[in-house]
Design a protein that fits this description.
alpha/beta; Peroxisomal Thiolase, Chain A, domain 1; five-stranded mixed beta sheet; 13 strands; binds acetyl coenzyme *A
């Protein structure tokens, strides 16, 4: 059976916070942020919008694009490290708000790799014929765990949501290969502390990411039997343009074949890949039959990559 995308959706808050705005909050500069990260602005959700609200908007759009009703969804998976509350989960909230049946719903915690974990989990349930249609969401309201006095981290993050409806697709399409991994010994480099704030050793995470993202990208392509030259589009986790370029260069593909929404949205953790995916579909950057690689890394440490034919 071939398992792939039936529809995608995304939502970002309307409030834009530019690098110039960040200069008023911490001792930083537009030039530093652009050259070190590629980020120009980010979206920040107000007090009236929580994680599940963003997840709901993105999920609605994905269901519409897929032409699938909420009642047809058999399982809801939400990747997030910033749920409204640890329980009920964001997935439980979505089940009710979307008007799905009394179906299974759960959150997945794998930080920025969470959407990869969600997609691969969905694939297993569909292949075993346990479920037909799975809603997978990546969503974060990172602004609520950001230390707005720490210039090392606060300039990097943003809020948003991306979603996909996953189900059976035609022969030759869908997920061709995947890789998931974790290394808990690196947990000390990126975590949430006792004050619920995000702590990161940027240099260590950078070193891990520039090694892992290119390697995982190559691994999933090798598993498909295709060559690097066959890749039509790359969607790396949108954390830092320098890390993203390391993966792109390793695959040997040109700049225009890589999603770069990090410029507009910063690092939205679990949401970054599905937002970029949904935008690429809507902008026509991913076309019918394209070979696409999605690859993420994040806190845990975790990583994950998927090669699929759209
Ligand atoms: N503005 C100005 N100066 C800054 C800022 C800032 N916002 N932040 C740090 N600096 C300073 C530092 O204090 C340091 O000064 P020092 O040399 O006097 O100590 C200097 O800039 C250089 O710091 P470096 O750490 O060498 O900068 P680097 O080139 O490594 O870039 C960055 C830092 C952007 C954080 C990079 O390390 C990075 O991207 N790391 C990976 C982060 C990441 O991708 N995280 C993703 C996972 S997040 C998640 O999963 C939720």
């Amino acid at each position: 059976m071939n398992v792939g995308l039936l529809g995608t959706g995304h939502y970002v808050p309307t409030k834009v916070v530019t690098n110039k705005d960040m200069e008023k909050i911490v001792d930083t500069s537009d030039e530093w942020i652009r050259t070190r990260t590629g980020i120009e602005e980010r979206r920040i959700a107000g007090d009236d919008i929580d994680t599940s609200d963003m997840a709901f908007f993105a999920a609605k759009q994905a269901l519409e694009e897929a032409n699938v009703s909420a009642e047809e969804i058999d399982l809801i998976l939400v990747a997030t490290v910033t749920p409204d509350t640890p329980f009920p989960s964001v997935a439980n909230r979505l089940q009710n708000r979307l008007g799905c049946g009394s179906v299974a719903s759960m959150d997945i915690g794998a930080a920025c790799s969470g959407f990869m974990y969600g997609m691969v989990t969905a694939k297993q349930f569909i292949e075993t014929k346990a479920y037909k249609k799975v809603l997978v969401v990546g969503v974060e309201k990172l602004s609520k765990i950001t230390n707005w006095e720490d210039r090392n981290t606060c300039v990097l993050f943003g809020d948003g949501a991306g979603a996909a409806v996953v189900g059976e697709v035609s022969e030759g399409k869908g997920i061709l290969s995947f890789e998931l991994g974790s290394d808990g010994s690196g947990g000390k480099h990126l975590y949430q502390d006792e004050n619920n704030q995000l702590i990161m050793n940027g240099r260590e995470v950078f070193k891990f990411a520039v090694r892992q993202m290119p390697q995982s990208s190559v691994n999933v392509i090798e598993k498909t039997g295709y060559n690097k030259e066959d890749v039509d589009y790359l969607i790396p986790h949108q954390a830092n343009i320098r890390i993203m370029n390391a993966a792109r260069e390793r695959l040997g593909i040109s700049e225009d074949k890589m999603a770069t929404s990090v410029k507009k949205y910063g690092n939205t953790s679990s949401a970054s890949i599905p937002i970029a995916l949904s935008e690429a579909v809507k902008d026509g950057k991913i076309k019918d039959n394209d070979l696409v690689v999605m690859v993420g890394f994040g806190g845990g440490l975790t990583w994950g990559a998927i090669a699929f034919r759209y």
